[in-house]
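Before the break, one more example. Copy the sequence into your notebook; we will annotate it together after we see the structure.
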Amino acid sequence: MTDKIIALVDGSIYSASVCEHAAWFAERTDAPVELLHVLGRREGAENADLSGSIRLGARSALLEELAALDEQRAKLVAHRGRAILEDAHGIVERAGVSEITTRLRHGDIVETVAEIEADAAMIVIGKRGEAADFAKGHLGSNLERIVRASHKPVVVAARAFEPIEKVLVAYDGGVSAMKAVDQIARSPIFAGLSVHVVTVGSPTPEVKRGLENARALLEAAGIVAETGVVSGQPDAALGKLVEEADFDMLVMGAYGHSRIRSLIIGSTTTAMIRSCKVPVVLMR
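Here is what the structure looks like once it is written out:
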């Protein structure tokens, strides 16, 4: 069975884009899509501790009322979650995906993803959650936690989905980078797309040799690839290249010690993902 694509939806302005990106990847890989909405442990339970300040003698009636309100809120939160999943299902279905499942869970989103990602091909998540319009300078609080914890590629969806034809691959010549290129070569996602492999740094003989190896690996898989070297700081250089050359997607390694692969650990990656207007695929 083909590994599924897990799409994390939360009712934010990014949810529709997450669904459309998931559908695009599903169409390229013939994979099923699982839509996941996680209700946090605190949702529906904000009033649970209000009775602590109620005086003796008045507790019984108010405790019953608070319990009823808590129960009603929990039902409303769950109902809203099911409505979000229903809407998401419609978006993915209209995009042409026939095999779709939905899952509503309670708990921590990172723990939930860890539990169900074993048979997943990738995780798709939006840059920000429901407070996106009120926190334009920040990424979603769960994004980096999921990227750090997940063992599968993570797709950070852009705010709006656009057709993907031209892909930029950030490459640093290391083992993890070559592994990412190997994953690209083996994946049907990139078949027929225009792929450009770029290193940020100086065009030394070693860098050129690494890029040539990457190009050869991709072309052996039938993917025509171009290579190049750009100077500057990785976040600024890659962001500028994406915008000026009209790339539709950025692919990079998620971890490592080089300048490019270590980006995800620091604030520079946060800045790059935030400013990048195209989806970012973080390869494992």
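The beta strands are 4-8, 33-39, 100-106, 120-126, 154-157, 166-170, 194-200, 225-230, 249-253, 280-283. The CA atoms of residues 25 and 189 lie 7 Å apart. Try to locate both features in your own notes.
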